[in-house]
Sequence to fold (636 residues):
Amino acid sequence: MKTKIFNCAKGSAEMREKLKTGKKWKSALADHKKGFRLLKMIHQEDSSILPGYLLDVGLQLAEIYGSLFLSAGLIDALLLGTFREALFWAVALIGMEFVLRTGRLWMQNWFRKVTTRLWLVFYVWLRKKVFSLDYETMEQEKVIDRIASLEQTADMYGSLGVVLYWYRNMLMAALRMAASAVLVGSLCLKAPVRGKGMFGVLALPAVSFPLFGAALAGMFWASFRLSGIFAKERRQYFESNTGMEQRLEYLVEQVFMNYKAGKVVRIFGMEEMLRQNSAKETDKMLAHYDGMLWVGCRENMGNLSVSGLFTLFSYLFAAVKAATGAVTVGAFTKYAGALTQFGSACADLVLGNVKIREICTYMTEFLAFLDLESRHAAGSIPVEKRVDGEYEIAFEHVSFSYPGSKEPVLRDVNCKIDMKRKLAVVGRNGAGKTTFIKLLCRLYEPTQGRITLNGVDIRKYDEEQYRSLFSVVFQDFRLFAFPVWENVVAGQERDNTKIREALRQAGAKELVDGMPKGVDTLLYKDMGDGMEISGGEAQKLALARALYKDAPIVILDEPTAALDPLAEAEVYERFDRMVEGKTSIYISHRMSSCRFCDDILVFDKGRVAERGSHETLLAKEGLYAKLWHAQAQYYA
Ligand code: ADP
Fold:
């Protein structure tokens, strides 16, 4: 399957290119297509959000145009001296304002909740995607970096809530334009009943239309020019912000707020160096934000000047109509208001378009990430559940290179894994032992050859079901800052008896019994005031987790690296009992573990160099014997 790796800087570069080549409309359409896709996704997430925004648009329009009509009626009634009618208009105006403002106040509260929800939804979508990706794609650092950068960009420039906000403004602007157009059109059509000279001419419908059209075109042109200039400036800021937040976040979260780092900082006296580093980063960040704010400030001033000029024109235009008797004085406010609305709606439409396109430059990366395809074949065959644990696994001419590297880490590996036996995998550092296990667990797929389970390529099996066959304690096993029981259960059903048994078998019972809240004790300080445990203790809990899963094949990747020799001997002895009746694979640098195994696989430079029992391999006097004798010196 093909993988598209997304690229953060690509979006803006693409946009620049499109603008350069003059395909503005095409590129605008492509951006709005992305915008609509986001709207659709938001709607699928919560079907009440879009109708809510539409309702708000309706309320705002009703408020704007309702007050224009009602106040015009009120002024005319006052001028004519019909006070009962004036009272009616006044009550209607106040009543409408009260109802609509209360409604909009309630809506604003709702918007706040929706914006927070959407901010979270953005993260949830990213996380869901991250977990749906296969490990191979995930392990590529570039993907992880870019997810972090996407999140920071979304935090800085606004997330999904901003997309909705600007689309709502654009819709509002379009409707305001449509509603005002009727009034503006009818104003232009009104003929003067008095007035001579220039005023009389200007009020003529034949002159009014082109005059208004010219003013509108001028305003459109100025708005486009301004938004183009400022969008370019903002984009430059956007692009120059290469990892600024990432660096600051690292300093805050991983250095200053990380109590584990506190030890190193104090012992090595790194305080001043860190203070200077963070001051440098903060200054850069502040200068960046100041620059961005100044762009925004100048943009607002520019937009205000354009809309101010158009408002001035609108009032003069309506005044000429009123002065020449084309419309009543009361209607003057209505028409002047409609003209102003028309102008500001045009400006809002232009601004909304620019903002949406700006957001789409980084949302492009977000959507590309959501579209990222897993490298792995998604098999569907169910794995046969065997109570006797008799599965047959074989590597057939398996070679493997890590993505982005041509150098094979495994070369033509052929071997069968005998069930219910203890297999040791040994070899020098970097010989390919861990990679062999990663391929066995289907975290990576062979570049060449195949791995079979009961004669069938493992890629054809349902991934989750296949993985359920393995319990692994990796070299870099990880416990989480959750309570002990959650670490042991690791996503399966909680069964207290089973937890106790797994802890006992892993030799962690005393440790957990001695904890303040037993199995409910929180580990580490990341998620609260949890308990710190040593590397060896953590390893025992990781063993308990592997046992709790109760899988037919148990793999230990350098399980004793963090243990002292006595504890190591204890683990082997214990494990020997623990894996009874199961298939177990040990990867160890400590050759002593091999004595406990029935079969030994010796890796050398990615190849299986030797295989056999401890005695046979020693007698062979090959690589195994060399490694064994080299270590025996230290243990003698
Ligand atoms: P061993 O477990 O025998 O020490 P590994 O299987 O961990 O060896 O590594 C074999 C080789 O693959 C080493 O040269 C290592 O640097 C390389 N390697 C391991 N993991 C990765 C990775 N994620 N990306 C690229 N190269 C890797």
Notes: The first strand starts at residue 393 and ends at 400. Residues 113 and 119 are 10 Å apart (CA to CA).
